[in-house]
Description:
The chain is of the alpha+beta class. It has helices spanning 3-6, 29-33, 36-49, 60-80, 108-125, 142-154, 168-171, 174-181, 188-198, 222-239, 258-274, 314-326, 335-353, 360-381, 384-393, 398-405, 411-415, 418-423, 426-431, 438-445; strands at residues 88-94, 100-105, 159-164, 202-204, 207-209, 243-247, 250-255, 286-289, 298-303, 306-311.
Amino acid sequence: xxxxxxxxxxxxxxxxxxxxxxxxxxxxxxxxxxxxxxxxxxxxxxxxxxxxxxxxxxxxxxxxxxxxxxxxxxxxxxxxxxxxxxxxxxxxxxxxxxxxxxxxxxxxxxxxxxxxxxxxxxxxxxxxxxxxxxxxxxxxxxxxxxxxxxxxxxxxxxxxxxxxxxxxxxxxxxxxxxxxxxxxxxxxxxxxxxxxxxxxxxxxxxxxxxxxxxxxxxxxxxxxxxxxxxxxxxxxxxxxxxxxxxxxxxxxxxxxxxxxxxxxxxxxxxxxxxxxxxxxxxxxxxxxxxxxxxxxxxxxxxxxxxxxxxxxxxxxxxxxxxxxxxxxxxxxxxxxxxxxxxxxxxxxxxxxxxxxxxxxxxxxxxxxxxxxxxxxxxxxxxxxxxxxxxxxxxxxxxxxxxxxxxxxxxxxxxxxxxxxxxxxxxxxxxxxxxxxxxxxxxxxxxxxxxxxxxxxxxxxxxxxx
Length: 465
């Protein structure tokens, strides 16, 4: 096969046939993995996802030209079993709820191969995964998981067993994980390649560190392998007849009483620690009333005999932290560019939280954001003559314009004054393109208008973490 054909897409731009959609004998898995159609689809996905470069510094935009020259060698190494993934680049990012999350950034070539592996493994495992598992699965989302949880609570499950798996992705044992993968995969070449990705190690501060356990978050294969590892937990909970929802390593079991919850917590902890060799974080796990625990950034409350979905009260606080960065005066950009960046964040954030019932959190954020924007304008005007002239141009009476232009109050106080609210009303910000939160929320809640609710590619909000 020619190198330029190895990762070629169809000329009409359509998706290639998924040769792995109906997995044949496991012996054919290696050929499916390296088929032209599978590699083309993997390359396109890697390019769409973009992302940071690995330790080699190569970007996703450079991958396709690089493959034209080097794919024959890579293919030969893969077939010969001599392909060696490079260590991932360790990146620490802050968690929204505090602490740090360790991500591993593979090189773009390793991402391509991992994506190709994922595409042939997924059809093997998807049919056997639990209906109660929602994380990183085709056709399923966090919203589906939250809605399932809401239904359990409404059906009479007044208590929840919130199980927190301590550093799950960093503690997965490689032997235990590979044994579970081998239940569905008997192609030794594929199994050997997966293990090499697990053992590729980490590059931290220029030094290589071995990886004896764990599957690095940030790699295409990691979510699927996490689901494979926790599928035994799903099966155990199902065999006991529990009502539960699992999204990646977030596990919520819904029961009818506190006593039942305590029994379930004890039995799950024993199963996780003895059978899966993982650890339950006792400090973060709890048995509590279902309406007092949040799930994936959402809360639950009862109204008019029904269970409603709300926004976790900490989520708007975290949104404000990001907006403070985007509205900081130290960021010296034009207002158009600033508004574009703000819209990307607010529309992405609202798209996630639009599942919530009620506009109040979105309206409150809008009021706060507009005050931050008025503060920016006031700081831009700086001097008395500029402030007086702009206030007059915006329709303020001469006396009020003079008084407020000479005000010694701080920008935040002035931004909340009736004068600046009248001079820079909501309509002013709408006219210059600020979308905010409330209008996108209404748009996303209206199924008929959803397609036109956001920019072409809104920022991907990371979720509650």
